């Protein structure tokens, strides 16, 4: 039986957030942002372990107490220069420690998506567990899309038909994902699915919800805090 593992790449610097502290450690409801994703993933009954991939020079992680997650949480300080490198290095480290098999499922989730719910997570796992390729949470594009020219004037309106915004978790088997990420080193992918697509596969889009947005800019932090506070005090 294949097992399920979560892997959180958390080796980014959060340049667009513009804070000296990497965004995954910014305070969100009195916890470092990454705590929320770890908590949701660790509580999931199907997930065997949650791997967190830190930058090698990260010393912020060790200032916090993670004992509540016991051995379900496994930390590797092997992040790379890009997200894809961090994920691939993490997969390699987990395999070297004999923690995963090649046909196990890996759910890659951004540290900067703190509002993932267990409902969305369960939906992703149940829709993909018998899939041949794997896939990702995503939402159909709602806004009208404009393509600009170099002067920031509208060149034309793009059709939003069949367009989706990719989220995470993105769920693929260990062997396909490692193969895809190794192949992707020269093609600058920003998510796992694009690496898998580059091998000619068609990942499945599992409709998610807008709450699972990625905290990227300063105003996103306040929004995520509101969502989490509301959930804690309905
Ligand atoms: N990430 C990573 N290793 C990198 C770059 C990114 O593990 N070399 C992780 C981030 O920590 C984050 C996820 O990939 O959890 C999604 O990346 P993004 O939102 O782009 O975060 P940052 O790269 O940190 O932010 P920015 O692009 O604004 O610098
Ligand atoms: Mg980035």
Please summarize what this structure is:
By secondary structure, this protein is α/β, with parallel strands linked by helices. Helices cover 29% and strands 24% of the residues. Strand 8 and strand 9 form a beta hairpin.
What does this structure look like?
29% of the residues lie in helices and 24% in strands. With 234 residues, the protein is of the alpha/beta class. The model has no long low-confidence stretch (mean pLDDT 97). The protein is built from 6 helices and 11 strands. Bound molecules: cytidine-5'-triphosphate and magnesium ion. Cytidine-5'-triphosphate binds next to β1 and α2. Residues 9-16, 23-24, 53, 79-83, 86, 110-112, 214, 216 line the site of cytidine-5'-triphosphate (CTP).
Query: Any idea how many domains?
Result: 1
Distance between the termini: 38 Å
Percent strand: 15-25%
**H/E element order:** EEEHEEHEHEEEEHHEH
Total beta strands: 11
CATH superfamily: Spore Coat Polysaccharide Biosynthesis Protein SpsA, Chain A
Determine the fraction of residues in helical runs and give it as a percent range: 25-40%
Query: What structural category characterises the helix and strand content?
Result: alpha/beta
Helical segment tally?
6
- Shape, principal axes of CA atoms: globular
Outline the biggest β-sheet. 7 strands, mixed
Q: Which topology does CATH recognise?
A: Spore Coat Polysaccharide Biosynthesis Protein SpsA, Chain A
**Do you know the CATH architecture?**
Alpha-Beta Complex
The average pLDDT is 97
Bound molecules: cytidine-5'-triphosphate, magnesium ion
Low-confidence stretches: none
Q: Using the coordinates above, name the CATH class.
A: Alpha Beta
Strand order of the largest sheet: 5-4-1-6-10-7-11
**Rg measurement, Å:** 18 Å
